[in-house]
Automatic annotation (TrEMBL):
Signal peptide extent: none
UniProt source species: Herbiconiux flava
Lineage: Bacteria, Bacillati, Actinomycetota, Actinomycetes, Micrococcales
Official protein name in the record: Rhamnulose-1-phosphate aldolase
Family statement: Belongs to the short-chain dehydrogenases/reductases (SDR) family.
Length: 262
């Protein structure tokens, strides 16, 4: 498939964790990357780590704001001359039992992940269709989009929403050569702002393990007995958007080291 001589990627929530690992991997493959995040300073710092404005730029973009997303996409066009690949990664996680989950929790979770990724995909698709060069849209959904666990309704429901956006957009954008695929990570403790910011403590309490042992706890319950790192998710993005997997769309790849059947 066609693409710009240097691929141009926009990754949301890329100032931290999985998104930062994805931006790093794509830059290592020669792509120019727009790091879009809530916090401009953190986004610019992450971009600087990748080697400066010839390779990566940081932009402030709250994915719940159509105007800020549009500005991020225009920054990609202006700085790097096009857009080939967009990753819906921005997210947060409110971990509460059903009876404690408020309407505000529900709305925030859905605003950022369901509406936010819809808005980002829509703005990106407009450019990808106009360019007539195909492209890729990736959703960082979650194992929780498929499997149900306790104390997680708002987060998991919105991840399931994202998973269906993948199928719907794969169907709608296929004729333009735009592939849309998802990744379902699980248990990425190390480097994750979500885990560090309270989610880890809550999950550790649910599983009855000390928070500092949570990564090892997740690892021992996987089939491969391996801890999942942000880089492992980034590798899946590289494969799904790379030159080998040109005929795959609407797929979700688990990056969870294997989930036991029971
Ligand atoms: P993280 O907190 O390190 O990264 C999330 C990033 O999203 C942060 O930089 C944050 O500032 C940004 N963000 C939050 N709200 C935003 C908004 N409204 N607009 C723009 N940016 C926003 O956490 P992470 O673990 O790296 O999570 C990244 C994605 O991976 C999330 O969508 C998360 O749900 C998903 N995920 C993570 C895991 C895991 O085990 N860590 C598992 C499954 C899915």
């Amino acid at each position: 498939p066609k693409s710009h001589a240097t691929r141009v990627a926009l990754v949301t929530g890329a100032a931290s964790g999985i998104g930062k690992a994805i931006a790093t991997r794509l830059a290592a493959e020669g792509a120019c990357v727009v790091i879009a995040d809530l916090d401009l300073e953190k986004a610019e710092a992450a971009a600087a780590e990748l080697g400066g404005t010839d390779v990566a730029i940081g932009v402030q973009a709250n994915v719940t704001s159509e105007a800020e997303i549009q500005a991020g996409i225009e920054a990609a066009l202006l700085q790097f001359g096009g857009l080939d690949l967009v990753v819906n990664n921005a997210g947060l996680s409110i971990s509460k039992p059903l009876l404690e989950t408020t309407e505000k929790d529900w709305d925030l979770q859905h605003d950022v992940m369901a509406k936010g990724s819809f808005l980002v995909s829509k703005a990106a698709a407009r450019v990808l269709i106009e360019q007539e060069m195909g492209g890729d849209i990736i959703y960082i959904s979650s194992k929780n989009s498929v499997f149900a666990g306790p104390n997680n309704i708002a987060y998991s429901a919105t991840k399931a929403d994202q998973a269906h956006q993948v199928r719907l957009l794969a169907a709608e954008l296929g004729e333009y050569g735009v592939k849309v695929n998802g990744i379902n990570p699980d248990g990425v403790v190390r480097g994750s702002g979500i885990f560090a910011g309270g989610w880890g403590a809550k999950r550790a309490a649910v599983y009855g393990v000390p928070e500092e042992e949570l990564g090892a706890y997740y690892a021992q319950r996987t089939l491969l007995k391996r801890e999942v790192l942000p880089e492992n998710v980034a590798n899946a993005v590289a494969v799904l958007t790379g030159s080998d997997l040109t005929h795959t769309t609407g797929l979700h790849i688990p990056v969870d080291a294997g989930v036991a059947a029971a």
